[in-house]
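FAQ: What does the model actually see?

It sees only this:
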Amino acid sequence: MLQVASGTRVYLACKPVDMRLGAPGLCAAVGKLLHEDPFSGSLFLFRSKRGNYLKMIYFDGSGVCLFAKKMERRKFVWPRTLDAKAPLSAGQLSLLLEGIDWRETVRPEPVAKPVLI
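And it is asked to produce this:
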């Protein structure tokens, strides 16, 4: 199981990319397609056309990490949107990596700070 530090932003590239790309090519795709800094400490996810292969890149401060996962019998659930990117929470990322439809989850409203009376 992949653990994501709290506060780490997670972005999905909504359009499929060529899975022959390695870390340098995916870093270039982050800048070109998502208009983000690949060295910002955010986690970026890319999917194949078939939807059964996923690559993630992440800059940890010392280098770019490249993770890959291939689903043998299912496909990853991806948003149907025209936007270039979609943000995810750490919980939604866990569901996505397990092949569960993360779009059905509802993020709770943030709790207001208590006020001293």
